[in-house]
């Protein structure tokens, strides 16, 4: 069975197998990793190895802190302004979809937010051209969403700005290489390409630490986490352990360069199948089509239900589109192999033959 869920998403099979084998007795300790103190050398070692492997995978420099937190990307929507938006300052945001909107709404609770550009007028099927962005003269940061999970819209460029770039990479992180040095803050919920839900990753340039509002809760202040090696309170130890296994698996696959080659091949195949048929359609402008989340509609929405029932019976799970856009969505994160995409395309073609 193949899992196309947008998140929590498929995990690599070898990772799940290793976790199963180590579940009751981790490395001969006689305990499950879940039962160990986060102060124990075992868990501290797991956390340190996970961080080191991630630094290696993404090329994260020593001038960045890597934080393993909780609360999901949604909590970071608030943590970002609490850490970076100064009294009387302004933050620029770009609105390219539902997740941008949520980040903007949360930012507005804490200070001045300038929506510098929006693609709402195209129903979030485009990214506003950089020349049209109305940036503030001296924003504390510029926030955008490199991949909109619901709309399936992805940036394949990095805006040049004065202000530090703060990005919600939840659904694109680890799918291809990025130049970490381009960003002030990268954050992501783990439940797509990192590991199980419950873990949140924040990568923050160290000069941006220590600027939090006085009323910022300790748990949301990135400096608290950085000063305590992400162990200010009890971290999600099991999720961290699994994320570490995923990072090792990615290294074994050849790292992010290799993942990009595979991910591009998967996405190109699926877009080609959609574009090659009058029965299926994807509304996103060509240059901004997501490699990870591919929404598509059927020419006759009355067939949606049959498509979902039959695809599930064929072992193709979780293809229902987000309730805000309807239709279908195939999320093809790192753990979704090319064989899964091939199986989906074969099903789509067969369904079209029978119903088109
Ligand atoms: N941002 C993006 C781009 C997402 O795809 C999601 C979840 O799907 C979120 C934020 C919310 O993440 P969380 O559920 O970890 O708060």
From TrEMBL:
GO biological process, one term: L-serine biosynthetic process
GO cellular component terms, A-Z: cytoplasm
Pathway noted in the entry: Amino-acid biosynthesis; L-serine biosynthesis; L-serine from 3-phospho-D-glycerate: step 2/3; Cofactor biosynthesis; pyridoxine 5'-phosphate biosynthesis; pyridoxine 5'-phosphate from D-erythrose 4-phosphate: step 3/5
Top enzyme category: transferase
Entry EC no(s): 2.6.1.52
Cofactor entry: pyridoxal 5'-phosphate
Domain of life: Bacteria
Modified residues (N6-(pyridoxal phosphate)lysine): 192
Matching InterPro entries: Aminotrans_V_dom, Aminotrans_V_PyrdxlP_BS, Pser_aminoTfrase, PyrdxlP-dep_Trfase, PyrdxlP-dep_Trfase_major, PyrdxlP-dep_Trfase_small
A Pfam match: Aminotran_5
Cofactor info, note text: Binds 1 pyridoxal phosphate per subunit.
Annotated compartments: Cytoplasm
List of residues binding L-glutamate: 39
UniProt binding sites for pyridoxal 5'-phosphate: 73-74, 99, 149, 168, 191, 233-234
Residue ranges of domain Aminotransferase class V in the record: 2-344
Gene Ontology MF: a single term: O-phospho-L-serine:2-oxoglutarate aminotransferase activity
PROSITE patterns: AA_TRANSFER_CLASS_5 (PS00595)
Keywords: Amino-acid biosynthesis, Aminotransferase, Cytoplasm, Pyridoxal phosphate, Pyridoxine biosynthesis, Serine biosynthesis, Transferase
Function: Catalyzes the reversible conversion of 3-phosphohydroxypyruvate to phosphoserine and of 3-hydroxy-2-oxo-4-phosphonooxybutanoate to phosphohydroxythreonine.
Subunit structure: Homodimer.
Identification of the protein by name: Phosphoserine aminotransferase
């Amino acid at each position: 069975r193949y899992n196309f869920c947008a998140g929590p998403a498929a995990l690599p099979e070898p990772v799940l197998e290793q976790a199963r084998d180590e579940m009751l007795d981790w490395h001969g300790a006689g305990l499950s990793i879940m039962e160990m103190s986060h102060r124990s050398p075992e868990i501290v070692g797991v956390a340190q190895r996970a961080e080191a492997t991630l630094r290696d995978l993404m090329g994260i420099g020593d001038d960045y802190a890597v934080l393993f937190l909780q609360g999901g990307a949604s909590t970071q929507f608030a943590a970002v302004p609490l850490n970076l938006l100064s009294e009387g300052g302004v933050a620029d945001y770009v609105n390219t979809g539902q997740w941008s909107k949520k980040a903007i709404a949360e930012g507005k609770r804490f200070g001045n937010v300038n929506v510098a550009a929006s693609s709402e007028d195209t129903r979030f099927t485009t990214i506003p051209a950089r020349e049209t962005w109305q940036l503030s003269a001296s924003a504390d940061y510029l926030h955008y969403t490199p991949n909109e999970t619901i709309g399936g819209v992805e940036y394949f460029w990095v805006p040049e700005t004065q202000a530090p770039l703060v990005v919600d990479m939840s659904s694109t992180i680890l799918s291809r290489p990025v130049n970490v040095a381009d960003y002030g803050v990268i954050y992501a919920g783990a439940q797509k390409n990192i590991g199980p839900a419950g873990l949140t990753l924040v990568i923050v340039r160290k000069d941006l630490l220590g600027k939090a509002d006085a009323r910022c809760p300790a748990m949301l202040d990135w400096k608290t986490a950085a000063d305590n090696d992400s162990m200010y309170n009890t971290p999600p130890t099991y999720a961290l352990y699994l994320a570490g296994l995923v990072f090792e698996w990615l290294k074994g696959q050849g790292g992010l360069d290799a993942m990009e080659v595979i991910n591009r091949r998967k996405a190109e195949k699926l877009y080609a199948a959609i574009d090659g048929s009058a029965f299926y359609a994807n509304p996103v402008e060509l240059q901004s089509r997501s490699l990870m989340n591919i929404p598509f509609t059927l020419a006759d929405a009355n067939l949606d239900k049959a498509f979902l029932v039959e695809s599930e019976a064929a072992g193709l799970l979780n293809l229902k589109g987000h309730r805000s856009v309807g239709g279908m969505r195939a999320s093809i994160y790192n753990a979704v192999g090319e064989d899964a995409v091939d199986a989906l395309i074969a099903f789509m073609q067969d369904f079209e033959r029978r119903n088109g």
